[in-house]
Amino acid sequence: MRDILFFPLAAALASTFIFVALDPNAERLPTGAVSGGGRDAHDITVKDTELNRFIVGSVKGVSLQLVRPEGGAAFLRIDRQAGATYEDPSLGPHLVLAEDIEVALESRPVEVIFEARSVGDAPADAFEANYFAKVEGESGWKQFPLTREFQTYTLSFFTPRRQREEGYDFIGVRPVAPDGHRVMDVRSVRIRSAGEKGTPPLTQPSGPVIVP
Length: 212
Prior knowledge:
This protein is mainly beta. It has one domain: Jelly Rolls (Sandwich), CATH 2.60.120. It is built from 2 helices and 12 strands.
């Protein structure tokens, strides 16, 4: 190709790429840690496209899909293979809580309220959730039964006191997959303070609280 044609074409192509990258009308889905962002950090709901903030994690055999039905709110679909086993919730599907939420919820009774259902040809009969603040301060994996319709399920946890050096808090969620693979949908996750700041108890609640 002659230079007289090549350089104008290259410049036009580069301009097109720059325009697409800077297009203010292009939709950019939310990513990264969940923060207050002008909302009440004591009561945050993650729903619709903000569910795109979920991170799939590094364990193999788990996938996430943000489903966006026409005319309706988006929801998150989680598919887990039976062999995808792990304890640390950051290795699988999870939300990261930004520092402003961690500070707001420090040393408080907290409720994490999930709207979830089983779905597909391999529906999960149950799912597990875990609020992880640190190794010695986590709820552990709590199990909840699922139905084909969206229901609300509440994980109760008393968050530990923040230390001088503190990492991020995580909220993990995964379908229970005893064999093959299992699928579930999450429509929203609400993280809220359920009481005043105080001294965390020596032991955490032993089981889930299910709100139909």
